């Protein structure tokens, strides 16, 4: 059997990425995954499975595998792939965010928080990690930690302020005066 050329491996990765992106466009939050999205996500997994080793075990392929599995709701399987990505490339935000997302949905909020905190150690000035940490702390009832992370996220990127109004993760702390103070800042 001949080795798969590099350009073919790269094309497979791009194609799988495209299927995942299209599949996720069809997903609406907290609804059943439409069959069309499932088909696209399974096609992405099939493509990644076609890759020869060691390409299939490298972070680019594992990230795609993890993202497809996460979108399919196969969170435990997604965690395994995303953990490998985090080990290989700690600065890849997608792995930390994906792990947090899966852990939250598995009801393991403390582990989700820990995962994002580890991601923050690798990339300390990433507002999206800070914002998601604020969300998870809010859900856990840790108001002060939520406020601190949200304040840092907003100070790094003001666009995160706009997201707070529609973010249901903040509902448990929405009426807390500290949250109100942070989210009703006028510039």
Question: How does this model look, in words?
Answer:
This protein has 10 helices and no strands. The N and C termini lie far apart (64 Å). It folds into 2 domains: 1-107, Serine Threonine Protein Phosphatase 5, Tetratricopeptide repeat; 125-187, no CATH class. With 187 residues, it is an all-alpha fold. The longest helix has 20 residues, at 6-25. Helix 3 (59-71) packs parallel to helix 5 (93-105). The relative contact order is 0.08.
Short summary of the structure?
With 187 residues, this protein is mostly helical. The chain has helices at residues 6-25, 35-50, 59-71, 75-88, 93-105, 109-122, 127-139, 143-156, 159-164, 177-183.
SS strand fraction? under 5%
Distance between the termini: 64 Å
- Residues in helix, %: 55-70%
CATH topology of the largest domain: Serine Threonine Protein Phosphatase 5, Tetratricopeptide repeat
Number of strands: 0
List strands and helices in order, with pairings:
Layout: H1 6-25, H2 35-50, H3 59-71, H4 75-88, H5 93-105, H6 109-122, H7 127-139, H8 143-156, H9 159-164, H10 177-183
Helix pairs in contact: 1-2, 1-3, 2-3, 3-4, 3-5, 4-5, 5-6, 5-7, 6-7, 7-8
């Amino acid at each position: 059997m001949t080795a798969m050329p590099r350009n073919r491996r790269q094309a497979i990765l791009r194609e799988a990425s495209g299927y995942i992106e299209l599949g996720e466009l069809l997903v609406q939050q907290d609804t059943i995954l439409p069959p069309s999205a499932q088909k696209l996500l399974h096609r992405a997994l099939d493509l990644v499975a076609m890759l020869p080793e060691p390409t299939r075990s490298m972070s680019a392929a594992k990230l795609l595998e993890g993202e497809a599995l996460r979108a399919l709701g196969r969170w435990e399987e997604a965690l395994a792939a995303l953990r490998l990505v985090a080990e290989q490339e700690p600065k890849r935000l997608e792995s930390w965010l994906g792990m947090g997302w899966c852990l939250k949905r598995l009801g393991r909020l403390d582990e989700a928080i820990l995962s994002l905190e580890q991601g923050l150690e690798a990339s300390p000035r990433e507002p999206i990690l800070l914002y998601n940490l604020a969300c998870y702390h809010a859900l856990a009832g840790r108001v002060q930690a939520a406020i601190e992370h949200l304040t840092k996220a907003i100070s790094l990127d003001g666009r995160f302020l706009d997201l707070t109004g529609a973010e249901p993760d903040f509902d448990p702390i929405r009426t807390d005066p500290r949250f109100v103070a942070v989210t009703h800042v006028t510039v």
